Amino acid sequence: MPRPRLAIVVFAFALASLLSIAPAAARPAASPPAPGQSNQIIIALRPSADRATRDSMQRPAQLGALSARAGVQLSYARAMSGDAHVLRLPETVPDAQARAIAARLSASPDVLFAEPDYINVPFGGPNDPLYS
Helical H runs in the chain? Predict the structure, then answer.
């Protein structure tokens, strides 16, 4: 009697494994922007900016003012360490356009810096054959 029970357990385990893989395979992964493109801007406000301005990055009025200066509609993505914030562009743009948007934002007196948010990828691996 132990043989059929073992076969049922193995079959149930295999079926559960296959069913758990199917939803993951069916969902397409969100593709990151291609190299040389960006869909986000990292921005930090000056410490001299008033507290209300620094605390209101998520508010529509502050985003509206930054969007007007940038020339594109920005949306708030998330906060970062060091009082920096990530703002999302409406679409993925080429490097030159992302830098131009960041430069327009940097011209604001309350902005310490603004720069495109790129995904860093390694250009190569170590050339040491003994590196493991």
Answer: 2-26, 51-55, 60-70, 95-106
Domains of the chain, with CATH numbers?
Answer: 37-116 (3.30.70)
Tens digits of residue pLDDT in 50-86: 666 656 677 788 888 889 999 999 999 998 888 889 9
Q: Could you give the CA distance from residue 57 to residue 95 in angstroms, rounded to a whole number?
A: 24
Buried b or exposed e, range 88-125, using 16+ CB within 10 angstroms? ebeeebeeebbbebbebbeebebbbebbbbbeeeeeee
Matching residue, tokens 């079959």? 11
- If phi > 0 it is left, if psi is from -120 to 50 it is alpha, else beta; for residue 83 that is left
The whole-model pTM stands at 0.65
Structure tokens at 70: 């940038």
